[in-house]
Write a structure and sequence with these properties.
By secondary structure, the chain is α/β, with parallel strands linked by helices. It has two domains: 144 residues, Rossmann fold (3-Layer(aba) Sandwich), CATH 3.40.50; 125 residues, 3-Layer(aba) Sandwich (Rossmann fold). The protein has 13 helices and eight strands. α2 crosses α7 and α11 runs parallel beside α12. The chain is globular, with a radius of gyration of 22 Å. Bound molecules: zinc ion (ZN). Zinc ion binds next to loops.
Length: 310
Amino acid sequence: MFLALPRCSMPARRVSPCAAGVVLGLLLLAAAPASRGAPPFRIGVVAAENVWGDIVEQLAGDRVAITSILSNPAVDPHEYETNARDAAAVARARLVIANGLGYDTFIDRLVAASPNPARRLIVVAHLTARRPGDNPHLWYDPTTMPRVAQALAEALAQLDPGGAPFYRERYRAFQASLRPVARAIAALRAQYAGVPVAATEPVFNYMAEAIGLAVRTPVAFQKAIEAGVDPPAAAVAQMEDQLRLRQVRVLVYNTQTVSPVTARARGLAARAGIPVVGVSETEPPGTTYQRWMLEQLRALRRALEPGRRG
Ligand SMILES: [Zn+2]
């Protein structure tokens, strides 16, 4: 059995006079079985978006205590305002993961408000070499997750060297768990590459690109919906004509950034018999990244099936 005694020499620990650590460690041992070898103090982690928090959890289990800031699929993440609880979580955190590309600028403010040179900050946009102005919905790009998992596994092993073999094992399992998602994308691509679709907002566009779908909605329309403003009239007219004239096979509908304009597009799609596939920015509760993606890909497949009418 692995005993979870505190490692007093561990340089990364922030609080913990050694004696107090030993006493607390023994108390924890008495209170709960230590068979999983979790450290007596869980590593504080803040994920700006819950999808990154999910990956941390899949890699680290109960060795970490995760706070995911954007975690409610019922609110528009582009308009989120932080609170004191978020600030306190960042102040305590040893590891922070953020999306970047302007999607979660609140993290920069929270990190700056409680400087800590020992805290690790992972910005997904930097890992994936994205540039300002790029589509920020990086978790829909299937090439993103393997890189994020690798960076997280390395950072966790540095912060908690005793858990390194555990993180390595979880990392391998995580990479293997992505294969069904890759297979689903490849199968859709084999059948539907080049098919024209509409999208109310850019959230799904990296995935659409991976499948080879041709997103026909004007960029100006999608960007305006993303920014929470009214799209230019010409872009709305073009989007609506594509639906009325059935120039697109599916409407990909972001259920989290809705407005009267998107609702109208949805109504037009329904009247034209174009299937609507709902997608969200924030990972729904009680699922995993892999299941979430597979469910959305299955819904897309059903919508694209020949002869299918909305
Ligand atoms: Zn968005």
